[in-house]
């Protein structure tokens, strides 16, 4: 399990919204566009929309810069846990002196110590751990629950040496079925598992209040899911291998919202982006930038309808004024260059 924490990245420094409403000048729509770009390399062009936009570092930076690190940390943490745990369940089948005359039914015996120092105390079926029992390893790790054919199977609880705990269903020495994994940091996953990996529906929460509720595959968020950040912003929609992919809606706490298509945590494809003051963009995106055909509407009703490239008007377009007057022309990199 991996924590998504904005305290460790630039998204925790929320800038106040800066609104730069442009004048509509026929010859140059964007001459009034001037924004401070002290951290421009970190801010997606889609957030710095054109000439009228609001700068808010708690927006898509969360999805992009933060998720890259989170993915790696989560995979490495879970992998190391799985490998370490599996190293516990590899004891050789013991050979008892009177094994030839052992009854083929479960029985309680005195605690048995394996060559590696692990101690099993519970039920046996012949030479095999079978039934209810507990096993403790020299480093302090412990499993308590049910066994079958010498493997953890059924309901059981495993204590990791670092304080993490898994409690739930087991099969073939691995978490399988429903179970709860509690991390000592306060993070928690409750849901379905398959061969030690999150698989199916689950709910994951973190100490800072963030939460994901949705589907997993091979230990990664995959399918439909809802993620809520600790500041109240949220994404609901499709995921593919821990990344936002497909159709989904991202909502900010200040009233802004994007609803549309995504690819690899970027707005990509057709979408609608709205602002709390009534502004709206409806059209194509490519890698978080307006790209293709789109309509931008100001709060007072003015519109630009036409082509976009890399977040700016580029190509043929038209300005539609409040009184219905239409002014057509050509734009290049956000500037009107001809009729």
UniProtKB/TrEMBL annotation:
Where does the signal sequence lie? none
Question: PROSITE patterns per the record?
Answer: IQ
SMART domains with a match to the protein in the record:
MORN
The superkingdom listed in its UniProt entry is Eukaryota
SUPFAM superfamilies, per database record = Histone H3 K4-specific methyltransferase SET7/9 N-terminal domain
Is Transmembrane a UniProt keyword of this protein?
no
InterPro entries xrefs: IQ_motif_EF-hand-BS (IPR000048), MORN (IPR003409)
Question: Per its record, how is this protein called by name?
Answer: MORN repeat protein
Species, as recorded? Blepharisma stoltei
């Amino acid at each position: 399990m991996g924590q998504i924490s904005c305290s460790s990245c630039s998204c925790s420094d929320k800038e106040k919204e800066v609104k730069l409403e442009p004048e509509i000048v026929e010859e140059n729509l964007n001459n009034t566009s001037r924004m401070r770009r002290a951290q421009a390399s970190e801010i997606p062009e889609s957030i710095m929309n054109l000439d009228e936009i609001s700068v808010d570092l708690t927006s898509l930076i969360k999805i992009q810069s933060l998720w890259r690190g989170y993915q790696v940390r989560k995979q490495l943490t879970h992998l190391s846990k799985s490998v370490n745990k599996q190293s516990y369940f590899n004891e050789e089948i013991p050979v008892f002196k009177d094994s030839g005359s052992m009854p083929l039914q479960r029985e309680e015996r005195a605690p048995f110590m394996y060559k590696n120092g692990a101690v099993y105390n519970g039920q046996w079926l012949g030479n095999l751990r079978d039934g209810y029992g507990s096993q403790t390893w020299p480093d302090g790790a412990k499993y308590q629950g049910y066994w079958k054919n010498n493997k953890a199977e059924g309901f059981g609880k495993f204590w990791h040496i670092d304080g993490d705990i898994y409690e739930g269903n087991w099969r073939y020495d691995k978490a399988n079925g429903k179970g709860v994994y509690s991390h000592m940091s306060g993070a928690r996953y409750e849901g379905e598992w398959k061969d030690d990996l999150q698989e199916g529906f689950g709910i994951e929460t973190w100490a800072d209040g963030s939460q994901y509720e949705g589907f997993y595959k091979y230990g990664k968020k995959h399918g439909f899911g809802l993620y809520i950040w600790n500041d109240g912003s949220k994404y609901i929609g499709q995921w593919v291998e821990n990344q936002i992919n497909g159709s989904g809606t991202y909502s900010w706490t200040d009233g802004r919202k994007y609803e549309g298509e995504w690819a690899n945590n970027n707005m990509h494809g057709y979408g609608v982006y709205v602002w709390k003051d009534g502004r709206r963009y409806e059209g194509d995106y490519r890698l978080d930038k307006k790209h293709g055909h789109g309509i931008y509407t100001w709060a007072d009703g003015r519109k630009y309808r036409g082509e976009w490239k890399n977040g700016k008007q580029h190509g043929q377009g038209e300005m539609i004024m409040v009184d219905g007057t239409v002014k057509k022309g050509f734009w290049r990199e956000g500037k009107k260059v001809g009729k």
